[in-house]
Each structure stands twice: as C-alpha cells, then as structure tokens.
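Blinded run. Sample ID left blank on purpose so nobody reads anything into the name before looking at the predicted structure. Input follows.
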Amino acid sequence: MAIPVNGFSKLTKDQKIEWLAKNHFINKEEGKTIVAQYWNSDAKLQLLHDEFIENTISNFYLPLGIAPNFLINGKYHTIPMAIEESSVVAAAGKAAKYWQQRGGFKTEVLGTEKIGQVHFMFYGDDSKLETFFSEIKSKLIASTNDITENMRKRGGGITDITLRNKTSELNSYYQLHCTFETLDAMGANFINSCLERIAKTFKEEAQHFSLFTTEEKDLEIVMSILSNYVPNCIVKASVSCKVEDLNEDKNLTPIAFAEKIVRAVAIANAEPHRAVTHNKGIMNGIDAVVLATGNDFRAIEAGAHAYAAKSGSYKSLTHAEIENGIFKFWIEIPLAIGTVGGLTSLHPLVKLSLEILEKPSAEELMQIIAVAGLAQNFAALRSLVTDGIQKGHMKMHLMNILNQLGATAKEKEYFAAYYKDKTITHSGVISAFNSLREKDAS
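Blinded prediction complete.
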C-alpha cells in the first residue's frame, strides 16, 4: 500500500530502493536484486543513465533490433529500431525486401517549420492591440538575438511572428504565433527560451504603449510554450510499381491484391475505430526509430495523431491508389526531430544508432523515419488482406510464450519446428508444452 513520503528526491539511490522494498515489493530481497541486475557494470555509464531523469532506481531495457535492406532514394540503409513488440522489426525488414525489388522507397521533405506560441489574455480594443503588435514586432525578434545568434549563423532562427485573435474560441484569448527553423536540432529548449524572452518583451512594451488604457496595458501572459503539432514540418515517403509486379501472394492476383490494399486504406478513412489501429501500426515503425535515435516519441505521436484528424475526423496517415496500371502507396506525416542535442550526444546506443544510419541530418532522418512507418503499414496491410495478421504475429509471439513457461533451448527449437505449419494459440502452446514435459518426465 502506497504511503506519502517527504524528501524522496533527496534520498540516495540505495535509500530510495530500500524505501520501495519496505513499502511496495512483495518479496523485498528479490525486488532489490532485480533492480540491481539491470544496472550497468560500468559505474560511469550507469551514472550517466541515472542523471537522465530524477529518482532513477534502475534501467528499463528495450530490445534494439536492426532492419536491413531499406533502399531509399537509390541508397541502402540499415535501420535501428528500439521496441518491445514482437514482429515489428521482422515486418519492417520483410517490407524493405519486398520494395527493394520494386524500385525502393522515394522520399522528400516538404517543410521544416517548427511552431511555438505565447498565449495571453487581453481585455481591450482589438485594433489597438494590432497597432501595438505591428509597432513592436521587430523589437520582439531583436530581443532574442543573444539566444538565436548561433542558430542564425547556421541559417536558422525565428522565421516569423504573427498575432492571432482567438476570442471566438475563448473570451479575451490571443496568441503570438511564432515559427522557427532549428536545422538539425529538435529545438524544444531553443524555442521555449525564445518564447519566454518574447513574452517578457511583449509584456514590458505594453506598459509603455501610449494608446493603451491602464487595463489594456495589464495584459496577462498565461504561458509560453512550443507546439508539438507541426503541420508544416512534413515529410513524404512513397512506393510505387506496376500492378502486375505485385505478384508475391499466390492466393491473389496482382490486381486483386492492389485493390484490397486500396480498400483497406479507404476503410481506415471511413471508420475511426479502424483508423486508430491502422495508424498505431504506422507508429510501431516510426516510434521504434525515434526511440533508437534519442528523439521524443511522445511528441511525434501527439503531432501525428493531430495531423490524422486535421480534416475534422480521424483518418489514415497513409494513402493508396491505382492509376493507369500503377499502384501507389504513400505517407505524409509531421516529424519534428533532431540529430544534435539532447540524448543524441549523450546516450551511447543513440550515438551508435546514428552511426548505423551514417550520421544523418535532421532532414535525412525525417525521411528514414517516414519510410519505417510506411513499411510497417504496408507489411500490416499485406498480412491483413492475405493470411491475416495473427499468423505472422503469433509466430513471433511463440518465443514470448515459451520464455514465460521457462522452456529450454532444446524445447524452443522443438516448438519452432512443431508450429511451422500449425496455427499458434496461447492455450495451444501451453497444452503442447505441458504434454512434452509430461512425456519427457515419464
């Protein structure tokens, strides 16, 4: 049973673990042993991980897998993926191999604009506020010069600030809508620092604007924060080939296969319940690469799902069509990511993942990530419209079930062969496993 505790963050790591063992672990010593088992034996490396967040007690591992053979814009890529879900890496690799023989993936970055906003309340005359903003806009940008200096030298910085009247949605609510170019950095800290300086300058200048009444001068800054919805930071990835080349599924003609894929995407556009699962599959591929490269998968998720609902209803992030005998399948998705700063320069496996990707720029990484999402979606749709999703998924899940049962290496080898041409179910594996153990014991 949880109990309140004061000063927990001030305790040492050992003291925190002792408190957890006393108040939460069912088997205190076993719990402490498990926590310690996941520490890195290199004390310096463990300290690095401890300092990523507060109140660290251990490391939480995810498998880091590799999906090779991705032909993107005529160049091969090996993609690192950090994810716990079985079949994701295998599906990505299978899709890569499928399209490798059909021209590969094509990508392009359609925009790199990031967004931040100063949200404020103004109780007064709209026209006077617009006049005030026009007069001080250049001063707002100039007030951030010390923050943006290095970014501007590299070609980035603040690209624009606009005043937006949001009073139709909320009484007295306005915002300064700011756009940024952050180059190879994701830019969250940079953007937020700029916004806070802009808000401070905006508030100060309002105090001296002669046209404002006393009440108008006292505008209220509510908050200054970047937005993870970046509809102008967009990347497109696509595949296409002649319909007749979609000839690997023996139970479907190429045209029937193509039409099924197109209908599957149309269903995701028509039915939000399906669209959520459809897009979740896309994010399986995207999140895995985002995690492996030290980027913020929560921000990517939130922005992607908002983009999927930009029409007013939640729809597929991918698109498919047949035109003049050509099958086309593509995705357009917002991806605000970075290859410098944050964990990209701290986490050893993140640095190694970026090496595997040949140290891409942020724009290059956007394209690779989008391809991973498109590949994952194609693999899922291909399974759904042919053999069904469970056949391949349960083959990968078989090892998880056997591990839960404590199977030996020999038993795992036996069941991999046993289920090669059989349907896998959780209960069926348990029954077959118990039968094998009883047979061996007799």
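Unblinding after everyone has recorded impressions. The longest strand covers residues 64-72.
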